[in-house]
Amino acid sequence: MLRLDSSLMIVTDLDGSLLDHHDYNWEAASEWLARLKQHAIPVVICSSKTAAEIIPLQKRLGLSGTPFIAENGAHVALHGEPILQNEPDENYLALCNTLRTLQATYRFSGFHDFSDAEVARFTGLTLAEASQSRLRQASEVVLWRDESNKLDDFRIALAEHGLTLTQGGRFWHVMPVGCGKGIALTQLLQSLAQHKANPLTTIGLGDGPNDAPMLEQVDYAVVIKGFSKTPVILQRNDQQNIYHTAHVGPRGWREGLDYFLAQPD
Ligand SMILES: [Mg+2]
């Protein structure tokens, strides 16, 4: 079992992991969050959510100022994010233009195609949260409405535009090739290593296929039971460092930390 010491870092997905898939609460995880905070162990959010969504959440979770990974790795914030724009980024709008051309061939919708109110309705987010979820910088959330056997062709078409597709717990996500939670985490760890004498030991927690690249990179992986039809499959050989939870959401999150981390006496 690992001890609560200063060389530890937690890397976590939000929806379906630290946050409940349906109502976004994190009550079951709050005891661990307090304990980690007490021991100054950083909890790095690694999510498909936008920076505009993550920053207020960090505040409510007591994690302000901690680095985070947004939009599935398309955006890494090393010191939190000082300045937030209140409109979508140009890179994002260019990506949406590319997707619009593909909508002639494939049936799908992106967050860009909806209003805040519509996003709020089908995600269960509040109107303000839905608005934050649409302040995107580098990736698009996609609701696939076509046959699932067309996804492979869609993937090929995206690759021709330098884009890639990954599956979250709820939606599909399109982002530039070379982005992903795993690559972003590697970048983050490299930056942090410049200021740290000892290498960090990482525990990662996630429930969706988009978490797999992150869960491959961490020292200890908690695969939280999820709602996605696609299972999270890890290629790593150290099975003893992988734990699959019996519970979903924040209860699974707690279960995973209970498994790997010793509680203080
Ligand atoms: Mg998730």
Describe the structure.
- It holds the Pfam family Hydrolase_3.
- This is Mannosyl-3-phosphoglycerate phosphatase-related protein.
- Keywords: Hydrolase, Magnesium, Metal-binding.
- The chain has 265 residues and is α/β, with parallel strands linked by helices.
- The chain has 2 domains: 157 residues, Rossmann fold (3-Layer(aba) Sandwich), CATH 3.40.50.1000; 87 residues, Putative mannosyl-3-phosphoglycerate phosphatase, domain 2 (Threonyl-tRNA Synthetase, Chain A, domain 2), CATH 3.30.980.20.
- 34% of the residues lie in helices and 20% in strands.
- The strands form 2 sheets. A 7-stranded mixed sheet has the order 4-3-2-1-9-10-11, with helices on both faces. The protein has a 4-stranded antiparallel sheet with strand order 5-6-8-7.
- The chain is globular and about 60 Å long.
- Bound molecules: magnesium ion (MG).
Bound molecules: magnesium ion
Order of helices and strands: EHEHEEHEHHEHEEHEHEEH
Strand tally is 11
| Category by helix and strand content | alpha/beta
Strand fraction: 15-25%
Write the CATH homologous superfamily of the largest domain.
HAD superfamily/HAD-like
CATH topology of the largest domain: Rossmann fold
User: What is the average per-residue confidence, as pLDDT, rounded to a whole number?
Assistant: 93
- Low-pLDDT runs of 5+ residues are none
> Assembly type of the shown chains?
single chain
General form? globular
The tally of helices reads 9
CATH architecture designation of the largest domain: 3-Layer(aba) Sandwich
CATH class of the largest domain: Alpha Beta
Radius of gyration, Cα only, in angstroms?
18 Å
Return the domain count: 2
Pfam families: Hydrolase_3
EC number: 3.1.3.70
InterPro entries: HAD-like_sf, HAD-SF-IIB-MPGP, HAD-SF_hydro_IIB, HAD_sf
Keywords: Hydrolase, Magnesium, Metal-binding
